[in-house]
Amino acid sequence: MSERISTPFIKLSKREGMKPAVIWSIRIGSILFAFILGMIPLMMAGANPFASYGIIISGSLSKKFVIQQTIKRAIPLLGCALAIAPCFKMKFWNIGAEGQITMGAIFASAIAIWSGPNVPRFVLLILMLIAGIIGGAIWGFIPGFFKAKYNTNETLFTLMMNYIAIGIVKYLQGGPWEGRQGTQIIPMFNKNARLPNVWGVYCGWIIVLVMVVLVHIYMNFTKQGYEVSVIGDSLNTARYAGMNVGWVMMRTMILSGAIAGVVGWMLVSGANGTLNSDVAGGVGFTSITVAWLSQLNAFAMILIAMILAIIGKGSATLQTRLNVPSSVADIISGILLFCMLGCEFFINYRMSFNFKAITAKFHKEAK
Question: Could you tell me the pTM of the whole model?
Fold first, then answer.
């Protein structure tokens, strides 16, 4: 029996002091590599990959109307990424933003549906906003409470609550809020329950930009943001410093849910004009990518959200112009996201290969 080689073939070590230019070169290289890999499914579908990429760009940035649609896609992505950033900073894995958006949308829609057409627009929108904040905050508080009191698994808890919120919307669609009998569709809101447009896009883009500044200040220049950072670094250190960890968890989840509720309010009063079971549209999950790629930097989230919105809008255009299956567009988007996330591994860690150990093992096996 050959002697066991204790030295590992591959060793991971933490990178420190990497220059910003090198970091961004790795990120840009990962995007270029993703585009090269994306050519494979395009060619398999019989499409010219270079023409396809051109269509993706033109389909999202070529005209005023498509730019407006791209920005419309980016608004909830950015807002939801801001919502989950404080939780992730605390290492509380909130996967329930989808449900928190939906509950905020439900509460805001209730005000729009129960109010009359004579309520002043500004007053009604403020009431809807407050209701949306309350709905999202409640849906965020519940998993925060159980995590703080009973140390439940927040990932599973928040994930399951997404489906409860969606189920509530489906009940309302086919029940008390249904419009024409048998349609399972909630009627469009009155004009006084709709957000105004600014430069062709509903004013949610102004709201999320204000939220970017507020979240940045909260996470970097407030006592509450400092407590979130300390808990994320070490629970024991936070407890030793006298912090009420359970309360900070609940408070942060209330804040996260409240911001997600604002996103739900914007979606029903701005983007959609009504409520449906797909109101969040997967934003709660995609925004996790936005948050991670931005390293929880609120201002960097603007760029990442726009990149993903460009990909999403451009991929939809690719499907319609070249008759490419929607699955191909999804594969391209998935490859790009995988490479963008994967590059962060090489930014944070260095891989070392022990070729001497490999060679020694082959020699021993040959004997």
Answer: 0.88
Task: Give 166's Cβ-side CA count (13 Å radius).
Answer: 17
Q: Is 167 helix (H, G, I), strand (E, B) or coil?
A: helix
The CA distance from 90 to 229, in Å, is: 6
CA dihedral 321, 327, 330, 334 (to 10 degrees): -140
Q: Are 59 and 67 in contact (CB under 8 A)?
A: no
Q: Give the separation between CA 233 and CA 23, rounded to whole angstroms.
A: 23
Q: Are residues 147 and 154 in contact, defined by beta-carbon separation less than 8 angstroms?
A: yes
Is 218 in contact with 86 (CB distance < 8 Å)? yes
Query: CA 144 to CA 231: how far, in whole Å?
Result: 14
What is the tens place of the pLDDT at every residue in 45-68? Answer: 888 888 888 888 888 888 888 899
Taking the CA atoms of 260, 263, 269 and 272 in sequence, report the sign of the dihedral they define: negative
The closest alpha carbon to 260, from 276, 282, 278, 280, belongs to: 280
Alpha carbons within 13 A on the beta-carbon side of 62: 10
User: What are the backbone dihedrals phi and psi of residue 14, each rounded to the nearest 5 degrees, phi first?
Assistant: -70, 130
Phi first, then psi: give them for residue 102, nearest 5 degrees.
Answer: -65, -40
Query: pLDDT by residue (tens digit) across 325-367?
Result: 777 877 887 888 888 888 878 887 877 776 666 666 666 665 5
CA 98 vs. chain centroid, Å, equals: 9
124 touches 108 (CB < 8 A)? no
Pull the structure tokens for residue 319. 């499907």
